[in-house]
Amino acid sequence: MRQRFSKGVIAIISIVTVLAVAITVGIFTLLNRVTPFKETGEGCKITTPDGSLELEIGQAQVASIIAVVAARRKLPERAVVIAYATGIQESKLLNLSFGDRDSVGVFQQRPSQGWGTAKQLIDPVYATEKFFAALVKVKNYRKLPVHEAAQKVQRSADGSAYAQHEDEGKILAAAFTGRVPKAVHCWFPEPTTTATATGATASATPLPSTDRARRGLAHALGANATFTTTSQRYGWLMASWSVTHAKKFGLRKIRYSGQSWTSANGEEGWKPDSGAPTGKVEIS
User: Fold this and answer.
1) Spatial distance between the Cα atoms of 31 and 34, rounded to a whole number of angstroms
2) Which of 3, 164, 235, 280 has the fewest CB atoms inside 10 Å of its own CB, making it the most exposed?
3) Total number of domains constituting the chain
């Protein structure tokens, strides 16, 4: 016997179908919006002997923070690789204010699981500190495969997923830890207006905010952080952090170790500069 459906049932089926399509389109749109390493009108490029990647400026800022926090904790590059592989899988290195259930932040940590409050976890410095604090408690984490070490921290539904991001993690770690010099550069349109103290807008080149940049570095590196370098590697770590935060803090020029980067020609990367110091990173 041929089964017949009432008009009401058909209507319900149609509504469910439309909703399913809408949800699918919405998810597809969201995933495309946060696709990592996408070339845009502004961005950052990471170049090492093992390969190159392009990141959105927000992703590069998070990547630089992860490396700086690792440096403060005196952690090995392997720990940074694990953190990057985890961050790429969990959030595509974006500081998300949403996630599965109550997950937030770059590592999608859950307040209900004891990682901290949502407000704390939306701070990439705090979130990275919590990630590394858990990672160093994993026995022999340096010798474990990246995905196994990450899974012991995250305890996600599918820990094997972290493995697919190991190569990207290695490229990012080599660059942002400073092991590979002048490996990070960013570019963005220079603003033509700036807000005055009263909130009005005037046509002028914004003044650089080096004090704000120093406070930002101190938040990630420690209260006594300065741009004085203790080694070439440490210097390039701070130079990379500065370049990724140049747009945020209004920096126009960064100089270090015979090289300089300018916001006016940011896409061209680092250029030789015989006057650039080796003992500190100059920002202006």
Assistant:
1) 5
2) 3
3) 2
Question: What is the residue range of 229's domain?
Answer: 204-283
Considering the domain architecture, whether residues 118 and 216 belong to the same structural domain is answered as no
For the stretch 112-122, pLDDT in tens is 999 999 999 99
Specify if 36 maps to a domain. no
Alpha helices in the chain (DSSP H): 7-33, 57-72, 77-91, 118-121, 124-135, 146-154, 166-176, 210-221, 232-244, 246-249
CA 104, CA 95: separation in Å to the nearest integer?
8
Confidence at residue 194, expressed as pLDDT on a 0 to 100 scale:
45
**Residue from 72, 63, 82 nearest 152 by CA:** 82
Are residues 148 and 75 located together in one domain of the fold?
yes
Question: Which pTM does this prediction carry?
Answer: 0.82
Digit-coded pLDDT (tens) for 58-80: 999 999 999 999 999 999 999 99
